[in-house]
Amino acid sequence: MKVDVDFDVFKALTARRRSEQHTDSAVLRELLGLPAVASAAPAPMNGSDSEGWASYGVTLPNGTELRGTHKGKCYVAKILNGQFTCDGVVYNSPSQARYAITQTGGNGWWFWTVKKADAEEWEAIGWLRERIKPTTEHDSLPV
Q: Which of the chain's termini has less CB crowding within 10 Å, N or C?
């Protein structure tokens, strides 16, 4: 089923999502006082201390530096102890970290960039997720 909402409603829903796995439907259920239901979204693969941070098939090893730019300022996030951190704060998702900086809803996978060891350019981590084949369990990113 499709529900049409205007952009302001979309932004408000996105801002209330606690993680990539927290769906718009779950937000609406909470607001309407309806019971939660099992999510069909893929389960997060939050990495262990030795593996780094992982989600949606993308693994970023501990120590990986990420950058995001907002209003001309560069922000730096890092994968520490298997967690996505920025300015010493741990976030459940790239989008949650993006929201903390921009105070607007949006997809953090396209806000945060990373430079692979064998690359000259920084690229959005969303491209890493896009390149994953459906049959691949996860993709490690060398630092």
A: N
